[in-house]
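Sharing in case it's useful to others searching the archive later.

Someone asked me privately for the predicted structure of histidine kinase, so I'm posting the question and my answer publicly. Question first, with the sequence:
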Amino acid sequence: MISFPNANTKTMQRMIAKRIPKPRIVGLVVLVALWVMFALWQRAEHVHQCRLIHDTLSSQGDALSTAVSNSIQSHRWFSPFVRQQLPTTLDTLARSTNVLAIAVIAGGDAEQTYVSGDESLIAYQLPAGEHVVDDTLQLVREFEMQNDPPMPGGFSVPMEPAGTQSFRSVVVLDRTETMSQLYLEARSRILIFVLGTLLLVAIGAVWQFTVRLAQSEGRTRLLTAETRHLRELGQAAAGLAHETRNPLGLIRGWTQRLVDAGLPEADQQQQAEAVIEECDRVTARINQFLAFARQADLQIETLAIEDLVTELRTLLQSDLDAKGLVLETEGLQGQAIRADRDQLRQLLFNLLQNAIGFAPEHSTIRLSMQQSSNGAFRIEVADQGPGACEEIVDSLFEPYVTRRPGGTGLGLSIVRRIAVAHDWDVGYRPGDKLGSVFWIDGIRSASPLPIGDRFSSVNH
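And my answer, the predicted structure tokens:
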């Protein structure tokens, strides 16, 4: 078995592996970190915007509460005039946007309560501060004023006793618009988050595509270098084979002269004949290697497959007779295909020779052709031998892989090379009951398939 050196290939693979890291995990971690940071940022922005929206309504309530307290505290005392003007002031403030009701309670006396708007919405029992009640925001504020009434007619005794009087104001604001703004803000943040997530996913996809593209380019460079190396290696091997065949021919020629002239000893004569046989055997192996390595140009033509098989039958008849084999053909009559005649002849010769080598004595070898599902022709060569071992099924068409005694391991490799050159598919499968089936698919037709398969069998 011949093995080609692959030190350069392994060196290239190591270089590309170092040049192209495996950043998928790192890239995924970075994307997840960015996604988490983006989510936290959007949440913080949402909380901030909601606070601003709420503060806007709260500022309006503070302004109204301040206006109520200032309108009362601007007087010296809570006089009847102030009491008379206070409802008008409250009605004016209640006409502001989002205001549902305003109430002022003087001195904690329920009888001195002044209300404008929907009084049923006011929660009098709430402490001072901001309170959310159903769909309203109620701002409760407590303030005082210095009650300093004037003295009537210059008397030294005032009309009412001086002192400090406490007040309590309640402003009820509608939160409906605020809730709508909060809803719009939440929906906008969700949309931004979804779009940002999609953008990160797109960035990740582009990153993965870029990484895979770089890896593909690296593999392409490796395969290109490997192909160049193998092509140069094949050219060198072909040249070496040519150079080896020439001295072999010279050795065989001189040895043949010695045999023809006759040697003095019988064992010397036998050894010289053995040298000739070995030279012939090595020359045959070299010829097979050259046939495998040679990249001949295809000469595509229309040919009758039945005539070609008839020629091969005549060529292989002695091998068939030696084992008492029968070669049956099926579906060949009247069929014309497009192929290189010489190379197809070599392909079928190798398959039939392989079948003859493994077929048991007095068995049948069948060569059939039928139309496959893709409209092209399919040729199968089946024998009743032991079949291929599972250990070598995946490598049957590789060079120098064989289990046949005396085989070179190049016959099926040549079959695959010829099939690939014609853009055909080649493969192996076990027989229906026993044996092996080698098939060639994708053969282009030059004539329509006749109705029904025609069967011809010749026994020898």
